[in-house]
User: Fold Dihydroorotate dehydrogenase B (NAD(+)), electron transfer subunit from Cupriavidus yeoncheonensis.
Amino acid sequence: MCANLCSAEPAATVASYRCQIVEHYWVNQRYKYIRLESDAPIAPLTLPGQFYQLNCPTTAEEQPFLLRPMSVYGAGPEPGRIEFLYNVTGVGTRALAMLPVDAHMDIVGPLGNTFTFAPSFRRILVVARGVGLATMAPLVRQAANAGVEITAVMSARTSGDLMDKQFLRGAAAEVHGVFDADGTSSVEAVESLIRRLINTQRPDAIYTCGSHRLLMLLQRILQDHPDIHGEVAMEQRMACGMGVCLSCVRLFECDGDKQFLRVCREGPVFKIREVVGEVEFG
Assistant:
């Protein structure tokens, strides 16, 4: 199988949890933060990179039909605490954004695999844009707790969209912001920056999420650095989130063998070198 077999085993227990909304507010004009509390100890079951299916409400204006997959932004320290950071873009997230504090909602998970991470790493490099910030925030926390140095290349439309504080959540890191507004987020500029960081810092692993353009760039760069481990957390449209509907199947290559794999089941974390062709990010 082409999926990430070296990562920690995902939690075996997948269940539906009734949660109460404890906090829910706008972080900026596009993103909202929501914190849920469950009577069940879901935080210890949830690993960096995993996601939940959220049952978004039906309102007079919005009628979402399917559950919405959402990567975990944070879990714990309380056993029933789970957090999400989401971009309000479609029917489901617009309906979700209308839920008040003290309301209840159902979530299903945890789903998917997790990032490969070793406490023996000296330094990691994370490259993120948009929703990738939420997906990789638990990985950043895991590295910080292990005493691993962190370098972050964060891409955004403008400096006001960066959300570096929300991404790092107090973790010490060397941050490089690149922006569409001034051209520093162009492929050429980011490639020059990442190659310089690799040559000077020699990270043990590189992780990315949130941009197909950045993924393809890192795949090209890693061809010159076979000693560096590289992983991508793929954001994909999916219906069931459990591998049954096959709506999130994508093409990967492992040891010369091309395979169609389910992002929700064999992923969402894959080796960067294994991704083939065009990949649609949510």
